[in-house]
Write a structure and sequence with these properties.
Length: about 90
């Protein structure tokens, strides 16, 4: 059984891997983090309002100081938000 993905990507990144550590990519990643964090808060409020079980939310506790850490945290919060969205469907 494969992973079910219900969320859409709101952000895009350059295909060129040489730009991975550029300021543009870092700023886009920070904007995406802020977007996903607000989205997670919204999902959490809806789950609590409907008295549904809330999946673990650990991404906000992960370090986000470097681009690599931020990338890992982004992947983690995307997974968490996807699980919350599935619970709401």
């Amino acid at each position: 059984m494969g992973r079910c993905w219900v969320l859409e990507d709101e952000f895009s990144y350059p295909i060129n891997t040489n730009l991975r550590y550029s300021a543009y990519v870092h700023n886009t990643m920070r904007q995406e983090w802020a977007w996903l964090f607000r989205e997670q808060q919204m999902f959490y409020d809806e789950l609590v309002g409907f008295k549904l079980p809330v999946p673990q939310r650990l991404a906000s506790q992960m370090p986000r100081d470097t681009i690599d850490e931020l990338c890992k945290a982004l992947n983690h919060i995307r997974e968490e938000n996807n699980r919350m969205k599935i619970c709401l469907n």
